[in-house]
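TL;DR need structure tokens for one chain.
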Amino acid sequence: MIESQNIRQILAIMVTDIVNYTETMNDNEDKAWEYLKKQRNIIKPTVSKMNGQMFKEMGDGTFSKFRSAIEAVKCAVKIQEEAHLNDLPLRIAVHLGDVMDDGIDVIGMGVNIASRIQQLADPGNIVVSDDVWRQVRGQSDMEGRSIGEQDIKGYHKSVEVYELTYNPDGSVTQKVKVTETVTIIDEEGKKIKSEKALQKEIKKVVVFPFDYNGENEDMEWIQYGIPFGCCISLLQDDVIELQFPNDRELGFWRFLRELEDVDYKKGFNVPLTLKKKIAKQLYADYFISGNINDEKNYNVVTKLYKTENGQLVNEIIQTDSNIYNIMDNFSLFYRKEMGVPLSHIQSNTNLPSSELLTDSQKAYEEFIKGIIYRIYENNNDLSIQHFQKAIKIDSGFCLGACGLFNTCEMTNNEKYQEIKSNAIKLALNHIYKVPTRLQFRIKIGNYMWHVGQPEKARKVAEMWLKQYPNCLDPYYELAHVLWMETKHNEAIQVYKDIIEKDPTSYRAYEHIINIYNGRLGQHDKAIKYAERYMEACPKQAHSYSLLANIYYGMGNYDLSKDYFEQAFMLASNNSNYLCGIAKCEINSENNSAAEEQLEEALELCKSPINYIWVYNLMKRCKKNKGQIKESIEFSKLCEKYQKILHDESFAILLKMNKLEDYVLIGQLSAALEELDELKKELIHPYSLWVGVGSLFIGAYAGIKEPIEEALSKIDELFKIKDYKFLGDIKYWAHAILCHFDEKPDQAIEYINKAIEVDRQWRQDRNYWLMRCYNQKNVNQAIQEGEIFLKKPPFDPLIILELSKAYIANGQIENANQNLTKLLGIWEDADEEYIYFQEAKKLWKEINTEKELA
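>> reply
TL;DR here they are.
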């Protein structure tokens, strides 16, 4: 702000005037008074914010001073933009002249000239004198035209006046081009013209649920509903990329996980420093928060922050009983404050929230409550009831139908299947109501999960990408579909395209790393991208964990452990990094050290996924020690949290993980009984997945019939839904059948095919390869077994298989050493453990032969 000085100086003077104010006063005093209130709300705060000072208000006119002509003109532009949006007809003029500032008023010919030329401005426009134009004409966002030499009353010479460019869309600066036209082809092969956003204009923003400090628990739907509605409104604008903690409707799973990891599952009352951290981890330019102060006539304040430094950009308060008005005003506020050009805002489609969602606030309330019950309460039944109420109130509520479909899809209840099918039909019938980007997401969900046609889902993703080539969401969706079709190299290329478009999109690096490391086994390439990630994010614990997982995949557990330890030093409240250390200890034959790490990790668990990781690793420790009964107990603990984390049907399927354990302690009947129960629990077609359970049981019980049943059910499932990413299960079933039929070469071929689809089977791969080599060639079995033992992961069953090979090859001393070591590992094993019994029997046989000799 300018300091008042009682001296003569050169200042930029800005004069404003309400057009036809006198006539308005005569015709409608209320409207005239409304104009004055709008002018006072806009001009003085804007002038102050832009380094000026309003020194006089005369009737409907204002006078302000600036040290800089450029700042004065930019302030005039900002005021005129606000005036356009608030239906306030203003004329503005700026002149640079010699004036006298006495500390209260500013007088002189410079003020008179500004006042005189202001009358030359058209309504809604800005004029400047030639002295000002010389200062601002070099600005890239300023254009103007001369309206000629003008005589100024009381001044001895004429002044050339310039009018800033006036665009038909209402903007007073040069129209900024933020989109360009493209032609796309839809899934039916039809050509459609559309607009795409330019990369440099895209704004990335993270939106948090709003806070409320009162005691009314029913306010949660407002806390979630207002920002959710703002997101839907913002999705109309191609230049906005956003994230909000919603899984199915908007697809932002990662945001939910980020909040869970810091123990703010619902996203309410998250500290500002933590919001900044999460926004940075989600690679956003801005983040949005809000607070609800009055629960009756909603009084809501929202704030926009820069992610880089946490600086408050601006805030706005709205009071209204109609939340749609609040959403619409907030949406406009966010776009303006993020620097979206006014010319684009006014020309872009900007339908009211009530048109995009539902015109019934009650239906919207039911919809939001449905989401909250599903995400935060894990209560699908109540969630479905709320979605049904929403649709009953408004049968054309597209997103309401989507919510109903998404929740029914997660259930394992036959009565919801018809509801699910009707819901997706209803959503598709009214899909035109929602923003284009949501239309693509709905179509992909329909083809991928309802119809089971991934190839059509891919076509929709490609069409989305063509229309939004500078938006990252369609790239990620396309890459995910390609991954599910096991087209890993094509998926990697899409992620590389993302990085080329936006080098700061570090999530793409993560996906590339995970595919190279976990799916393709190309560890050198994974390391290259992990090092680039660390170079960009050297202070993030996640950078170290990415490298740790690669070295874990390579079998270099010492180096992997070192990186996990460094990650834990940077984020010592994160149980996942302790789990990583424990994994390395398990695979290096240090089960006791692993159990200590896991006990510590258990104290840090915050979310279901944290507990599942810890209990699964506990299970591995117990299994390595032959304590299968305890392994089963840890499986049951996992199931408790899987019910919270996963869809109902998937959580039931995960119960199959302990079936092989029952077989391993000689309880085949218990395994078969539980499998029968799972068959009864699961609805079609998920019931076909019990074939996987049959595979586990048959493999470890040495029975062909369950494996043949598994293949039959899996083939039937694939006819209904062609999920290529699950093809590894078929390969494993064929491999084990070939092994039982004593066709080791074919079995080995199928095992390697399964690994190509999913490398998570690599530990099982070594064990089953050893069994095949023992069938095929004892010398090869010994050679491979010794290699397996030198290079972790540690697996006691490899020692058992190698001991068998030694015995078959007459190397009794080697067999004895291995079996002695194995029985030491299984010192506290369950007596019923079938492999423990086998090891004891072999040891006894070879040592009895020694005594007889």
